Amino acid sequence: MNVFKTKLKALTLIDAMVGMIISAMTVAFAITGYQVIYKQFYDYKRMNKVTVDLTQFNSVFKNDFFNAFLIKKNNNGIDIDLPVKYGQEFSNALYENQISYQFNQQYVIRKLNNHPDTFFVSCTNPIAQFLNHEQMQNSGLVDELTFDVALFGKNESLHFQKQYAADLLMRTEAEPGQLFLNTFDNK
After folding, report:
1. Among 69, 71, 75, which residue's Cα sits nearest to residue 137?
2. Measured distance CA(77)–CA(65) in Å, rounded
3. What single-letter DSSP state applies at residue 159?
């Protein structure tokens, strides 16, 4: 009996090489597809975070600005005095609930009763105005505030305007923005 005459079915070296090349191409396509999808998801997540941060800041700031009793300019931002609550005396309530906003090029800090919140929104060129005059001095009354925010590489301008009650405006001095706080009567 001749042992060497039996043929075994097996792959040749060329068949194995072709299979390895096809497998390598399939893995390369899968890795490239994963990297593209991961990059798109990362970009989407980053853009979504920027959008959410700006939306939250805009909502909170708009609410504080429009519900404010007084808005005054400070060194790097504004101070907002909240309105008097029912049943409180005016002189005690005026400074109990004060919100302070500090504008920075990378973030905005909001402090309510010394509890800080940070919004990662880039604010530049803040302009505080009262009766269409820019406020240069600190503690001046503010009824308009404009600043630029960076959104996806572009600067967008945000503008906020507050309308004060007539009796409050009648208590202002001759120079716009200065307020006689001691003339209020407790009623």
Report:
1. 75
2. 13
3. E
**Is 130 exposed, middle or buried, given 0-12, 13-18 or 19+ CB atoms closer than 10 A?**
buried
Of 25-34, 46-55, 66-75, highest mean pLDDT? 25-34
Highest mean pLDDT: which of 1-5, 11-15, 130-134?
Answer: 11-15
Sheet holding 144-151, edge to edge: 133-134, 123-130, 144-151, 154-161
**Mapping DSSP to helix (H, G, I), strand (E, B) and coil, where does residue 63 land?**
helix
Q: Which two tokens stand for residue 1?
A: 């009996």
The pTM (predicted TM-score) of the whole model is 0.67
Residue 170 has pLDDT above 90, yes or no: no
* Local structure of residue 141 (DSSP, 8 states): B
The residue count of the chain comes to 187
Rounded CA separation 147/11 (Å): 72
Domain residue limits, the chain: 41-183
What per-residue confidence (pLDDT) applies to 149? Answer: 87
Distance, CA of 70 to CA of 104 (rounded, Å): 22
Name residues whose C-beta falls within 8 Å of residue 128's C-beta, 6 or more positions apart in sequence: 73, 78, 134, 135, 140, 142, 144, 145
Q: What angle do CA 62, 68, 69 make, to 5 degrees?
A: 160
Please write the tens of the pLDDT for every residue from 128-137: 888 777 766 6
